[in-house]
């Protein structure tokens, strides 16, 4: 029986046993976008029945991650709704009721086999080179035998009595996939601790919460026939299933202890705007009808269709290819934001999108986003609120160079630096070697004589210095950079000079000029 509901209802149901990584975040995003595109509802449900691994800290991190990504849920923890509670550990009484129904209808039974006994049978099957399936030993126990074991306090699980049939999954992405139920066997739906198994609880929750579309990673496809059998046993309407392609790294391997398994909050801490990561993740296995890659939220939420997703693995190409000797030593799962930043130096699609958005957002918004990155910077305290006009002016000039906001403080600090020094011998030698002193002296004299006040003025002035000294390219620009900044790299000089202003620029050259024996 297919779903009778007219309103599209999707859900994201994470297990609170770790942070939210890119794979999980993409699943959440696909559910969110599809619900929005169809004018439906997006639900959040917490699947915490694995009590050994579920933690409150992980639950809070997942909520924080989703909120940062801008995926507000219509029903779920903190929001409520008509189908709660939305945390599985608070729904045990519901599962217990449905389990009693299955047992009474002979569609499930108690299994008193010990873990040692089951493990022995499993090893025997492995030694014979055949897949292990439960042999149904407890399926034929009489009521008196069952009561005897219960009275003795024998631990038991509850197993679903799997009917012998062909299960067909009509998947919106993968197409029709067929499974023989005889290869599944009677599987556990309630564990010995009384908590339901994943495949069992998820069916009851999806049915009672009226979920119309189950969108998740392709790794869950093998779970689907079990879930369909349980849907059918209860007479619940079936949702539509859509299993999104696997996400792989640039080496074609599944993301696990590699870059994509990093918490999405690490991208926040690096200074990516949430819209950038949303846009990037939307393209991991999905393409827009017109092939566009850069799309504002409103457009994504209106055109997304799960049926445009590809069966082929999606490549998460943010990270540069590791050197062979690093592959065994780098565990991306343990990198902090700064460590992760070292692997983001290539110009990737994510960085291209990020730079484009940073250029386009209102400067007031960018100033507010900069606040966490200004806290420990070497700029005066009055500029760290993110609203000071001077700070916004500087940020507006440097944002064209930024792929992520964590890159901004060194540029901004440049404008507030008073005690200027050469950052190293390399920078100093740019003046001391060749014709460097002549270039530096001529530049100082030129800005003293002129009154440059915009990038074009400074560009023309440097060209004039080149004509007078016979220098061009690196031997012209590098001595000028060194005598004005004490560094060998940085912002485009005409932009920097305009922001610094003529007087501050002269003062800097006088300080650095004395160090290299260059009189004003």
TrEMBL record:
Its EC number is 6.1.1.17. One of its GO terms (molecular function) is ATP binding. The keyword Transcription regulation does not apply. Residues 369-510 form the Aminoacyl-tRNA synthetase class I anticodon-binding domain. Its main location: cytoplasm. Residues 7-318 form the Glutamyl/glutaminyl-tRNA synthetase class Ib catalytic domain. Keywords: Aminoacyl-tRNA synthetase, ATP-binding, Cytoplasm, Ligase, Nucleotide-binding, Protein biosynthesis. Belongs to the class-I aminoacyl-tRNA synthetase family. Glutamate--tRNA ligase type 1 subfamily. Monomer. HAMAP family: Glu_tRNA_synth_type1. Catalyzes the attachment of glutamate to tRNA(Glu) in a two-step reaction: glutamate is first activated by ATP to form Glu-AMP and then transferred to the acceptor end of tRNA(Glu). This is Glutamate--tRNA ligase.
């Amino acid at each position: 029986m297919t779903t009778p509901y007219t309103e599209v209802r999707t859900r994201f149901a994470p297990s609170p046993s770790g942070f939210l990584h890119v794979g999980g975040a993409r699943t959440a995003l696909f559910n969110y976008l599809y619900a929005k595109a169809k004018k439906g509802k997006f639900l959040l449900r917490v699947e915490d029945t694995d009590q050994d691994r579920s933690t409150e800290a992980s639950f809070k991190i997942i909520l924080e991650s989703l909120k940062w990504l801008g995926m507000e849920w219509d029903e779920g923890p903190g929001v409520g709704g008509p189908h709660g509670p939305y945390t599985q550990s608070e729904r045990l009484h519901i599962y217990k009721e449905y389990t009693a129904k299955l047992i009474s209808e002979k569609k499930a039974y108690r299994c008193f086999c010990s873990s040692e006994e089951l493990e022995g049978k499993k090893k025997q099957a492995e030694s014979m080179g055949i897949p292990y399936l439960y042999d149904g030993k407890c399926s034929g126990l009489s009521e008196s035998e069952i009561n005897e074991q219960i009275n003795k306090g024998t631990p038991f699980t509850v197993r679903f009595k799997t009917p012998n049939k062909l299960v067909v999954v009509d998947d919106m992405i993968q197409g029709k996939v067929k499974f023989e139920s005889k290869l599944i066997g009677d599987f556990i739906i309630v564990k010995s601790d009384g908590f339901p198994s994943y495949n069992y609880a998820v069916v009851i929750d999806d049915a009672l919460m009226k979920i119309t579309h189950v969108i998740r990673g392709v790794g869950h496809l093998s779970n689907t026939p079990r879930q369909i059998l349980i849907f059918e046993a209860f007479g619940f309407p079936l949702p539509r299933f859509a299993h999104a392609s696997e996400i792989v790294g640039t080496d074609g391997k599944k993301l696990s202890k590699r870059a994509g398994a990093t918490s999405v909050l690490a991208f926040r801490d690096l200074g990516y705007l949430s819209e950038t990561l949303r846009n990037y993740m939307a393209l991991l296995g999905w393409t827009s009808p017109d092939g566009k890659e850069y799309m504002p939220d409103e457009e994504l939420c209106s055109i997304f269709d799960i049926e445009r997703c590809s069966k082929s693995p999606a490549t998460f190409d943010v990270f540069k290819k590791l050197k062979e000797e690093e592959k065994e030593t780098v565990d991306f799962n343990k990198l902090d934001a700064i460590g992760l930043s070292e692997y983001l130096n290539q110009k990737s699609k994510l960085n291209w999108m990020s730079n484009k958005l940073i250029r386009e957002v209102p400067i007031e918004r960018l100033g507010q986003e900069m606040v966490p990155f200004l806290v420990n910077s070497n700029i005066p305290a009055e500029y760290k609120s993110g609203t000071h006009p001077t700070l916004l002016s500087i940020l507006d000039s440097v944002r064209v160079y930024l792929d992520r906001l964590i890159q901004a403080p060194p540029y901004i600090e440049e404008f507030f630096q008073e005690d200027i020094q050469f950052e190293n011998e390399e920078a100093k030698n740019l003046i001391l070697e060749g014709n460097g002193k002549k270039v530096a002296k001529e530049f100082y004299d030129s800005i003293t004589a002129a009154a440059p006040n915009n990038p074009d003025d400074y560009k023309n002035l440097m060209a004039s210095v080149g004509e007078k000294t016979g220098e061009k390219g690196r031997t012209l620009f590098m001595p000028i950079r060194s005598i004005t900044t004490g560094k060998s790299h940085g912002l485009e000089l005409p932009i920097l000079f305009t922001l610094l202003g003529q007087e501050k620029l002269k003062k800097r050259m006088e300080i650095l000029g004395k160090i290299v024996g260059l009189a004003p």
